Amino acid sequence: MASRLITGAAAGLVLAAAAACAPVDGSDGSAGSGGGRAERTLTVFAAASLTGTFEELGGRFERERPGTRVEFNFAGSSELANQIAEGAPADVFASADTQTMDTVAGDGLTAGDPVVFVRNTLRIAVPPDNPAGVGSLSDLADSGVKVALCAEEVPCGAAAAEVLEAADLEVTPVSRERDVKAALTKAELGEVDAALVYRTDVRASGRVEGIAFPEAEQAANDYPIAVLDDAARPGLAREWTEFVRSDGAAEVFDDAGFTTS
Amino acid sequence: MTRASPPPEAPARPAARGSGRLRVRSGRFPWPLAVPALVGLAFLVLPFAGLLARAPWPTLGTRLLMPEVRGALWLSLTTATAATAVAVLLGVPLAWLLARTDFPGRRVVRALVTVPLVIPPVVGGVALLLALGRRGLVGRYLDAWFGLTLPFTPAAVVVAQVFVAMPFLVISVEGALRAADRRYEEAAATLGASRAVVFRRVTLPMVAPGVLAGGVLAWARALGEFGATITFAGNFPGRTQTMPLAVYLAMQESPESAIVLSLVLLGVSLVILIALRDRWVGAL
Q1: What residues does B177 pair with on adjacent strands?
Q2: Full set of structural domains in chain A with CATH
Q3: Chain A residue closest to B248 (CA)?
Q4: Where do the ABC transmembrane type-1 domain residues begin and end (chain B) (predicted)?
Q5: Chain B stretch 130-189, residues whose beta carbon is closer than 8 A to a beta carbon of chain A
Q6: Which of A5, A99, A124, B20 has a C-alpha 20 to 30 A away from that of A194?
Q7: Contact (Cβ atoms closer than 8 angstroms) between residue A92 and residue A240
Q8: Helix or strand or coil: residue B3?
Q9: pLDDT in tens, chain A (261 residues)
Q10: In what order do the strands lie in the sheet with A68-75?
């Protein structure tokens, strides 16, 4: 019994290995110029906050260029920067703040200067019923208001610190969340009365109210994009960086709550 | 090593323990087992070697003395210990029910116990928020009736750790209970011992190695807990920021700090586990 099991498992492994070695055909019937293996894959490392817009733009990019595939790795900007520094294979890096991009560029890992393509501003996200009656940034300093901020190590936390300093406010959060989505979730679930998140997160969520505040402009996050020095597809990578700055892309970004210049 | 005399300090121990030293009865070295075993060991140890190689030794001292590190370490050790205590208090009776009684739906209950092992801890954290959060299934009543809100408190850290760690204890103790010879319990019962006395004086001592092994597993799991903790308890230095959370956030800024923090956690847990093993946990 046991030996039969082992034989079966071994046979399964062999089959799986054979399948993995089989040549990959173009997924749809439209064979490109080079037969079944004409696929060019562009690998884009992008800040998690770009997930929705980049996926939509990636689909368009692929449709306009048959035989091209865009693969994304979405994560926190600094995490991505670490991965790039450790040699992760990426063609393009889009960061949610200029500091992280500067680190990568400073290490000589980018080809050419990074370009800012969108901008994001902070909003106060409150649960739909706004239990603590938050109306302005200064309300967050009230000790009865439970606030979630991003940790200062991540871009949204740095931006939050900046606006709070600009407004000369002392806010003690109940939690310093690891990324902006975690902060948003806490507000969506009503576990906190308010969270400082991006306008794009409020727009994407639909389950929180966003409150604008004048100080937000002082700590707007600029999103730079750059082709990486180690890019396997530098030409395609440049096409992508131009594509995300096109008028068509601007519409997608505006819909999502970004500001394009 | 001669075949006739077993090492003097080695007492009879359950066969399933991790072997401290390679001992072979016949003269031949068991290559068919040793090769995959060594590959397995190398696979587990190699990442650790990577950490050691990249550790910023010159600045180690100054980084260790940061008050945040001490706060996070203290919180980690106390919450993991509290979580283990809770897991033993609740988990041993649960394991006993699963191993020794027959009730409808027992298979389902056993499967439910393993749920926290299977689901990603981050999802576990969200589930805890949905159940025990301020607006959660049960949490809303805790808030309304007692003014008690769990999230963002050290208690929430313990709750998250118990959630992920208790299954290890239950499974370990249930296995020990099933393996234990029931005739001792029956003999005690025929001699007039009540069920409570049998449980306390016969069953528990018999499965003590299993409880200790499960407790150590649970403690180690609680100590390394990240996903459920950061989701359910949040992250605030000194209150809910345990070592794994501190490591994660340090990673965002400087991998070197993260490595140092990891080494601290590793060192402390190794010291404690080795000390425990020599004192009590013969079964490990």
Answers
A1: none
A2: 4-119+222-256 (3.40.190.10), 122-219 (3.40.190.10)
A3: A178
A4: 73-276
A5: 130, 133-135, 151-152
A6: A99
A7: yes
A8: coil
A9: 444 444 444 444 444 444 444 444 333 333 334 444 458 999 999 998 898 899 999 999 999 999 999 999 998 888 899 999 988 999 999 998 898 999 999 999 999 899 999 999 999 999 999 999 999 999 999 999 999 999 988 888 988 999 999 999 999 999 999 888 899 999 999 999 999 999 999 998 889 999 999 999 888 889 999 999 999 999 999 999 999 999 999 999 999 999 997
A10: A68-75, A40-47, A92-94, A221-228, A110-120
Tokens matching residue A20:
């993995």
Q: How far apart are CA A117 and CA B235, in angstroms?
A: 32
Q: Quick one: which of A65, A97, A80 has its CA closest to A240?
A: A65
Could you tell me if A159 and A237 are in contact, meaning their C-beta atoms sit under 8 angstroms apart?
A: no
Query: Bridge-partner residues for A225, per DSSP?
Result: A94, A115
Which residue, chain included where needed, has tokens 């208690």? B155
- Cβ B194 vs Cβ B112: under 8 Å: no
Among A130, A178, A185, the strongest candidate for a mutation testing the B interface, having the largest count of B CBs within 10 A, is A178
Q: How many CB atoms lie within 10 A of CB B148?
A: 14
Chain mean pLDDT for chain A = 86
Report the residue of B235, B240, B247, B254 to disrupt the A interface, i.e. the one with the largest count of A CBs within 10 Å.
B235
pLDDT in tens, A12-69: 444 444 444 444 433 333 333 444 445 899 999 999 889 889 999 999 999 999 999 9
What is the distance in angstroms between the Cα of A214 and the nearest Cα belonging to chain B? 27
- Residue B215 CA to residue B169 CA, distance in Å, equals 6
Residue B21 main-chain phi, psi, to 5 deg: -145, 145
* DSSP conformation class of B205: H
**Residue A5 one-letter amino acid:** L
Which amino acid is residue B222, in one-letter code?
A: A
Query: How many Å apart are CA B146 and CA B166, to the nearest integer?
Result: 26
The predicted model scores a pTM of: 0.76
Q: Cα angle vertex B235, ends B86, A46, to 5°?
A: 130
